[in-house]
Every structure is written in C-alpha cells, then in structure tokens.
Amino acid sequence: MTTYDNEDLGPVLELAKSGDADAFGKLANRHRVRLYRHCYRMLGSGAEAEEAVQDTLLRAWQRLDTYDGHGSFPGWMYRIATNMCIDRLRGRKRRLHPVSLGPPAASGAMPQSPDPGIDWVEPVSDQRIGLGSQPEDSAVTREQVSLAFVAALQQLSARQRAALLLHDVLDFSHDEVAEVLDTSSSAVNSLLFRAREVISASPMIPTADPHDPAV
C-alpha cells in the first residue's frame, strides 16, 4: 500500500477500540477524504460516494473490535469501503449517462441517445475530494479523479474496478487485493488484465497507460 499505511494510529486506535466515540471520530476524520475519493472512483457519483463513506464508517465502528492489527488500519477501512461499493454497484439499476464525452453534435443534428450500458458520472469539485489537501496525497494526480477516468471505470465490472483501483492506484499488493475481494491472486491477475485492457481501449482516455498508477 501507499506510505500512509504506517501512520501512528496506535493510541487513538486503542481508545476507539475500547469504545471511545471521540477517538473513533478522530480516526474517521483522518480517513474520510481518502475514502470518499475511493468511493467516488468506484461509484461515479458524489452523493452515492458520501453515502458509501457513511456506511463504511458505521460498519467500521460496529466491527472495530474485529480489527486485530493484521495489515494496516487504512487498508482495513478500504476493504470495508470497497465491499460497500461493490454491493451498491450490484444492486444499482442501470442509469443513463448525463454527460457526453464525445465530440459535440453538428448544428441541427439530433442528439444521440446515451449508451444505456454505461452508468452516469457526476463531476465533483477538487475541494470535495480533497485534491492536494494533505501532504501525503501529493502524488494523487488530477487524472486519477478526472471525469474521463472515472467514466472509463464505469465500463468495468464491480470487481474489475475494485481490483484496478486497489492495485494500480492505491498500491495494494496482489495478495492484499485478493484478500479484499475474497479470491485468489491468480483471479486478481485476470481481473487486472481485463480491466487494463478495457481502460486502454477506452476512447475516453485514449492516451492512458493502464499500468501507470497515475491513471
């Protein structure tokens, strides 16, 4: 994972695990922006991302006593958030895409119907996703949360999307991704191969390198 998996959360985390709601509030505030950014990439909707973050924090609070220190605490939170998003994606009805990322229609031409196979994507502000607001997030590029990239992600299955974001953006190892998705490392390889193939072929980001974590 990225460098912030070694944050010194020990004292606050122990207080939170003992039932201290204020201590958990500090943990939640420390991770909220990163979780929101991840959920936005997964879901393509700012409103749904906020709901997913709230659900994630509630689930984390309810299950905090199950965190045994195996792996990083941020990684544990990402695992909850990722599976919350996957559940939402599986239960979501297909929606039309409200923005066109293609060339403008000629004057007088009839507008094309949006592709019903692509979920809509809702733009969010840099401030909402905390872009560049924290020193440890300085490597996060605008491309990682650009409308084009997030729209391209919506072409992937929920598990492909999760695998690509966890591995290529958040620097999870293959084994860590496999643990989050409750699958094997070989299955993760297959998910990543297909996801990168689709992203590479996407007209939304024609110059993207699917192996570059800055995508």
Which regions have little confidence, pLDDT < 50, spanning 5+ residues?
Answer: 2-6, 96-118, 135-143, 206-215
Helix content: 40-55%
Number of strands: 0
**End-to-end gap:** 16 Å
CATH architecture assignment name? Up-down Bundle
What count of domains describes the coordinates? 1
The global form is globular
Quickly name the level 1 CATH class. Mainly Alpha
Strand fraction equals under 5%
CATH-assigned homologous superfamily: PhyR, sigma-like (SL) domain
**Number of discrete helical segments:** 8
**pLDDT averaged over residues:** 77
Q: In sequence order, what are the helices and strands, one letter per element? A: HHHHHHHH
SSE class: mainly alpha
CATH topology label: Butyryl-CoA Dehydrogenase, subunit A, domain 3
Can you summarize the main beta sheet?
none
Radius of gyration, whole Å: 18 Å
Explain what you see.
With 215 residues, the protein is an all-alpha fold. It has one domain: Butyryl-CoA Dehydrogenase, subunit A, domain 3 (Up-down Bundle), CATH 1.20.140. 52% of the residues lie in helices and 0% in strands. The chain contains eight helices and no strands. It has helices at residues 10-17, 21-43, 46-62, 73-91, 147-153, 158-169, 174-181, 185-201. Helix 2 (21-43) packs across helix 4 (73-91), helix 3 (46-62) packs across helix 4 and helix 6 packs across helix 8 (185-201). The two termini are 16 Å apart.
Structural key phrases:
215 residues, mainly alpha, Butyryl-CoA Dehydrogenase, subunit A, domain 3, 8 helices, globular, disordered C terminus
